[in-house]
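Human: I would love a firmer grasp of how sequence relates to backbone shape in proteins. Could you go through the record with me and say what the backbone is doing? Here is the record:
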Amino acid sequence: FVSSTDVAAGVAATLCAVQLLTPADPFGTTFRLLKQFRKQEKALTSSEKVDDSINEYNRLHASDSADERNAQYKSLVNSYYDLATLFYEWGWGSSFHFAYRYPHESFAESIRRHEYYLASKLGLSGNSPEQKVLDVGCGIGGPMRNICRFTGADVTGLTLNQYQVDRGNEVCDSDPLLTTKRCRSVQGDFHHMPFDDSSFDAAYAIEATCHSPDRVKCYSEIRRVLKPGAIFACYEWCMTDNFDPKNDDHQRMKKQIEEGDGLPDICHTSVCLDALKKAGFEVLHERDMAEDDYGANQGGKPWMLPLLPSWNPFTQRFQFNWLGFFLVRNALRLLEFIYLAPKGTSKTQMMLQKGGFGLGDGGKAKIFTPMYLMVGRVPEDAPKK
């Protein structure tokens, strides 16, 4: 017979071993989450309270029609990132995107490689801080900081959400080799950027412009701020040719992704490619990187693996089985009850988990990709738009 005390001691010992013997930092990340919970409601821009913000967000997603969400995309996206950023940083890290893993590659290594690969498409030369690069939809700046180190360029990140701006700049300034002198976040809408024409030598977007209800307008604005001959490269979230709009299960996955990830609607890969052309870019390259050979037979891992259920309690995948879902939801409700987390936190996590279920299922069914790569160049002789 094993007592509950023995189980608790075993869990505590395992957590201490993970803390001391691996790069993971469960105690530090959990302490940071609880600390940021206390500041979250003071930093909200979508509402004065988390509970009000999640209720309004859920209202916008209650309809099957995307019309209102498209019309109110700024409110939708801002509310989403007010709510989700804390959980993203705690559970995923500072780079809010996916990557497949080659054999023997760690999660962190795959994330950095995915970013460096995109940066390699930008046509930057040398290691010059004179080159100005724009990160369109930068989150809290994980990719921005990595690409700044990788290329040596001066990088400016743009995000709609003020909380992300503040958090991103806080992290930048905490690194004495970077600081906001080399890379920084600014607040703005990527349909109406606060930059002059021809301001940047290159631009990239990592799983960010999927929040736009008008890709042509979004890509046209990116083109406006780029110099002639400059390159824009992005990873887009898209439905693939395998998506069947008449299939109820496919529609369920699509709806879960939209609702769990702050999206007005998800378009097909062909829509994004056509929009890039209409915006005036010369298309240099495009492909769905989810179809790349990442060595699955030799131990490589698909991009959606972190979202697939597991019974290992020391991975984030545990939350996607029925027991983990129950425990996480009620643990957050307890934190709300004892005022360590704002009311509405458990609703936010349930919304995010719903998105995780849709992404995992959509990835397995190959009806969705988070890494449709497009690389376009502004023509050298292009008239300004």
Strands lie at 132-136, 154-159, 183-187, 200-206, 226-239, 282-288, 368-377. The longest helix spans residues 345-365. The chain has a mean pLDDT of 87.
